[in-house]
Design a protein that fits this description.
Blueprint lengths: L6 H5 L2 E4 L5 E4 L8 H25 L1 H7 L4 H24 L6 H19 L1 H5 L11 E2 L6 E2 L14 H9 L11 H15 L2 H12 L2 H15 L1 H15 L25 H16 L42 H6 L1 H9 L2 H32 L3 H30 L3 H20 L49 E3 L4 E2 L7 E5 L6 E5 H4 L10 E3 L5 H23 L1 H10 L6 H17 L2 H10 L2 E6 L5 E7 L1 H34 L7 H9 L4 H7 L17
Antiparallel strand pairs: 1-2, 3-4, 5-6, 5-9, 7-8, 8-9, 10-11
Helix pairs in contact: 2-5, 2-9, 2-10, 2-11, 2-12, 3-4, 4-8, 4-21, 4-22, 5-8, 5-9, 5-12, 9-21, 10-16, 11-12, 11-16, 15-21, 15-22, 15-23, 16-19, 17-19, 17-20, 17-23, 24-25
């Protein structure tokens, strides 16, 4: 409820615009209590929270794939459910943005994100313990040695470990429950998408409405770069959780025979989601106490607080009552507003550019850790850690620096377009250098090389067995790799023809391996150890690849903020929130939603060996053809970014044509603005730029 206004306040009351564009009084302005600064801090933390949970979910994609034994394309559908949630409410929220209580809508969104994170954790408490795929071995009479190769054996051989035997017998078919529990993760991701929808368009438009025009880009860049600390910590948390066993605290870790580099390893993916849910809940709290609107920044700087006759707390700002939302009128104006936006060629090209950028970025974020793991033999935990401590901080620096340069040099829209175009072209050149980071294909007997190890096999000529293991009765649907002394990986110790072993758990070593002996090694050297063989060339190429990624991420982020500000400066002020929503909608519908699905489907085509579920059927991929994986993954990214380069050039040409009348740069306007900095209103009237709120004459430039 508004308190009565004193006579002194009415004489010196401040003015600011409500959603309808009319002037409305604000009672007082306290320089010590800037609610715009509070909103900036709250919005930055909400950006942090959504980035924190979003990046954590991205980092756990491979762990979710292995835990639920699903393909990469299904993981892409789960990832795309977030975009579906956004689409359900994005247009409505962004269009009605100036007409609703924006801070409270953002608060509700943060709460919904929290619920979605907690819902995604449910499968961990509904499923049993994770039993990874492994072979069974038989015990000889001395009970001191076990054999993977059992000549003439039929059916499941005996095992020396009661736990392993009970796993085989009692695993049973849990198809009716566990096979579909990934739907909880999908629905939780859907809710996160719904909750995140209002944060960006409403938050950014709120800042742009109530801040100085010259500060708007800096504030938005500051909020977005501050929010990037969320993804950084999200990836660090993901790295930590990926290094923990999924059933941490319940299972004896020493009894596990695989390590985090193994493709069957599943980290504690559920643990971080509990933290993400709590962070999103905390992010919602400040917005409940922020007002519907604020005084325009700098509008009341000349007022003397001492001249105001105020009753009660002088630092109390009481904005006018919130105007009633006329829903029928808002719906009536929807189509004209949409036609006005898409009648602007600059905005149309910007939308197409956004779509292609979304496709490449979403594909990279979703499958980058898988690519590093398969291509460079890096554990998922290490790949996530490197992204969190190197790539994301560099991205934050680039975004912050981009916003700072706009403010420092007061870049006009033409200068921002040139700057963004040049930085992206440089990033594309660096991106092409990714193809030079070649790595040898993992040598897997029967998959990529024959058992003789002489020449590579074609993908259509897989020979799983050979004379050296023909009598071992090996099961083709098993994957428990061992590395022979000859440097070749075998799908299981059985396929290596190993007849004895020593040690237990991770330290087990297999001996008398007939297939390894076939490589010219003596009996004393025909052994194999658990795990895939290491590739030396991959380890050497990885630092080079990481350096190229860092340079590319910095250049893309440096031009990101100027590119984003082009949208604000090329549309009518009353359509800014709507423009942000349409931009996000287009990016998510045509980029964020399909990209992880078709990226995942094409990556699945490069799989050489699929895992097997306990009930039968293929599970997640165990090993890929790394050369084909590299060509598909990097080729898609390069193709999408090549299209972005063309659109950047077209966008720059359109902007230069519109805002350089008679082919002359608007330097005289810019110099006039600098020379008359004491008269900002006059300078603004002379500078015809979209996004300025000076006069009705600018309306013609938006069409």
């Amino acid at each position: 409820m508004d308190r009565p206004t004193t006579a002194g306040q009415l004489k010196e009351k401040s003015l600011f615009q409500d959603s309808g564009g009319s002037a409305a009084p604000a009672r007082t302005l306290c320089h010590n209590c800037s609610k715009l600064k509070i909103f900036l801090g709250a919005l930055a933390f909400s950006f942090f929270a959504k980035g924190f949970s979003g990046s954590y979910m991205k980092s756990m994609s491979s762990q979710i794939e292995r835990r639920f034994e699903i393909s990469s394309s299904i993981v892409g559908i789960i990832d795309g459910s977030f975009e579906i949630g956004n689409l359900m409410v994005m247009v409505l929220v962004s269009y009605l943005g100036p007409r609703v209580h924006r801070p409270k809508i953002i608060a509700v969104g943060c709460l919904i994100m929290s619920v979605g994170a907690f819902l995604s954790v449910m499968p961990q408490f509904l499923m049993g313990r994770y039993n990874y795929e492994r072979i069974t071995v038989s015990v000889d009479n001395s009970s001191s040695s076990v054999s993977a190769c059992s000549p003439g054996a039929e059916g499941p051989p005996a095992t020396d470990a009661p736990e392993t035997l009970s796993t085989v017998i009692n695993a049973g078919c849990e198809k009716t429950t566990n096979s579909y529990l990934w739907l909880f993760v999908l629905v939780g991701n859907l809710l996160r998408g719904i909750g995140e929808a209002p944060v960006m368009p409403l938050g950014v438009s709120y800042i742009d409405d109530f801040s100085k025009e010259e500060n708007s880009a800096f504030y938005i860049g500051l909020v977005r770069s501050s929010g990037m600390f969320g993804p950084t910590l999200g990836f660090l948390l993901g790295s930590f959780c990926a290094s923990l066993w999924v059933d941490v605290g319940v299972v004896d870790i020493d009894a596990i025979s695989i390590n985090p580099k193994d493709t069957r390893w599943v980290g504690a993916w559920w643990l971080g989601l509990l933290i993400c849910g709590a962070v999103n809940f905390i992010a919602s709290l400040p917005f409940w106490f922020l007002p519907y609107s604020l005084p325009k920044e700098g509008e009341n700087e000349d007022l003397k607080i001492s001249h105001l006759s105020v009753q009660g707390d002088p630092c109390k700002i009481e904005p006018p009552a919130q105007p009633q939302l006329q829903f029928s009128e808002a719906v009536k104006d929807f189509l004209p507003a949409l036609r006005k936006l898409f009648g602007n060629p600059i905005y149309v090209v910007f939308i197409f550019l956004t779509v292609l950028q979304y496709n490449s970025l979403v594909g990279i974020i979703t499958y980058e850790t898988k690519f590093m793991e398969q291509q460079f033999n890096v554990s998922v935990a290490k790949a996530i850690f490197l992204i969190g401590v190197i790539l994301l901080p560099v991205t934050i620096l680039g975004m912050f620096l981009g916003g700072f340069l706009i403010k420092k040099f007061k870049l006009q829209i033409t200068e921002m377009a040139k700057f963004a175009c040049i930085t992206f072209l440089l990033a594309f050149v660096v991106n092409l250098l990714y193809f030079t980071c070649s790595c040898e294909v993992l040598q897997v007997a029967g998959l990529t090389v024959p058992y003789s190890g002489v020449k590579p096999l074609s993908s259509s000529k897989h020979t799983y067995t050979a004379s050296c293991n023909a009598e071992c009765s090996c099961k083709l649907d098993q994957w428990d790799p061992v590395c022979g002394d000859n440097g070749i990986t075998y799908m299981t110790a059985c396929f290596a023809g190993c007849k004895s072993s020593a040690g237990t758990g991770k330290n087990m070593v297999f001996h008398n391996c007939s297939c390894v002996e076939g490589q010219g090694l003596g009996l004393g050297n025909s052994s194999a150890v658990l795990g895939q063989c290491q590739r030396e060339s991959c380890a050497k190429a990885f630092p080079y690849f990481l350096a190229l990624q860092t340079a590319c991420a910095f250049l893309l982020a440096l031009g990101g903020t100027p590119t984003y500000m082009i949208m604000f400066r090329s549309v009518s002020p009353d359509l800014k929130s709507f423009a942000v929503g349409i931009e996000a909608l287009g990016g998510r519908v045509l980029g964020g939603l399909p990209a992880p699905i078709y990226f995942g489907a094409l990556i699945d085509e490069t799989c050489l060996k699929w895992g097997t579920k306990s009930c039968g059927g293929s599970g997640s991929c165990r090993v890929y053809d790394t050369e084909e994986f590299r060509n598909v993954y990097l080729g898609l990214i390069a193709g999408l970014r090549a299209g972005c380069c063309l659109l950047y050039i077209v966008l720059s040409a359109l902007i230069i044509k519109r805002f350089k009348p008679d082919g002359k740069e608007m330097k005289d306007v810019k110099n006039a603005e600098r020379s008359t900095s004491k008269e900002p209103e006059t300078a603004n009237k002379r500078e015809i730029l979209p996004g300025s709120r000076t006069s009705e004459e600018n309306e013609e430039t938006y069409m």
